[in-house]
Amino acid sequence: MKLRSDFKVRLGPTPTEFDKMPEVCRREVMEWDREMVRLGEALMGLMCEGLGLDAGRLKELTCLEGRIMASHYYPYCPQPELTMGLTPHTDPGVLTVVLQNQVGGLQVKHDGAWLDLNPVPGALVINVGDMLQVMSNDEYKSVEHRVAGNPCREARVSIAVFFNPGDRHSLFGPLPELISAEKPAVYKSFTFDEFMTRFFTKELDGKSLINFFKLSQ
Ligand SMILES: O=C(O)CCC(=O)C(=O)O
Ligand SMILES: [Fe+2]
């Protein structure tokens, strides 16, 4: 049984051509993207400041540029306990912004337990992704999340925008400013291309991908 349908659009660094997008929503997608870039820049600035870095550090590293929008449609599921809307995973990129409708089902793992992220009208969910965990040298942790099977007669709809490094071929690793004798690098450096190749060849199971790039301590 198909649990959900997805609609994915590449927004950057090279956007999908306007006339290749479904006509019914192309203007809205472009407008949403413009707002997401503004929001992403503000969020990344705050995350940098939280690490004691210049507010523009992540932007300089092209982290605003690689954007993908994924819309998910989770239909009603008569036996939700037998299935999942989306299996547990962490998002591979830097940050993710998620808009969800009123149905609910998104859960995050906290202290080993799954907590419901009940929808709040007008609110967005912001996830820290694996690349931000790596670049922050474990100061920020990517969040494990999943979506339960939908028990409501109404469909669940969500729209995620993933912020990834636009530069897929340079090496990324813990930022040098955050490495010291007391806090040595936790991860080796790798390209985002290499990271995504591994992401797509493994089963999505929690945090195993990021662990692959850990240096043995
Ligand atoms: O549907 C959601 O709320 C979450 C989607 C998600 O986690 C993803 O696309 O990576
Ligand atoms: Fe996700």
UniProtKB/TrEMBL annotation:
Q: Which InterPro entries match?
A: IPNS-like_FE2OG_OXY, IPNS-like_sf, Oxoglu/Fe-dep_dioxygenase_dom, Plant_2OG-oxidoreductases
Q: Which PROSITE patterns match?
A: FE2OG_OXY (PS51471)
User: What are the Fe2OG dioxygenase domain coordinates in residue numbering?
Assistant: 59-165
One Pfam family from the record: 2OG-FeII_Oxy
Gene3D superfamilies the record matches: B-lactam Antibiotic, Isopenicillin N Synthase, Chain
> Keyword set for this entry?
Iron, Metal-binding, Oxidoreductase
Q: Where is the signal peptide?
A: none
Q: Which family does it belong to?
A: Belongs to the iron/ascorbate-dependent oxidoreductase family.
Query: What name does UniProt use for this protein?
Result: Fe2OG dioxygenase domain-containing protein
Q: Which organism is it from?
A: Vitis vinifera
